[in-house]
Design a protein that fits this description.
2,3-Dihydroxybiphenyl 1,2-Dioxygenase, domain 1; 2 domains; four-stranded mixed beta sheet; 3 helices; 33% strand
Amino acid sequence: MITGLFETHLKVADLARSEQFYGELLGLQLAHRDEARLTTFYWLGGLGEAMLGLWQDVPENIQLQHFAFRSTVQNVLEAPTWLGERGRVGRNFLNDGTDQPMVFGWMPALALYFRDPDGHSLELIAMLDGPPQPELGVVSLEQWNKAQAR
């Protein structure tokens, strides 16, 4: 019955500001804008693949959420620079003050986090080749590669 996640929705305080962030800054493809309902939808991964809906609401009704954008390993590695060029700061899962992507050994996947203008936690994530190694926990890519070489 279920073959994937098709859409997710976020409440935002300022739809125009969020459109600038998601559409212009991140480069998501506009799917539809409904000015009567103060909503905007973006395609993720191309027409009909997945969708992000933004709904303007009063700040008191916004509950911070998290979701991840599927990416490639190369793009996640380039994300700290890409985000910096857009005035955003990446952070790793440990939130230890660095912007170097980390590997989740149980998946395995490489990930980096950042925030949107409302404070929602966004993630760029890419699956890695090789079998899961949950015993490694969350490690740097360098540590992951060393473990794979053994």
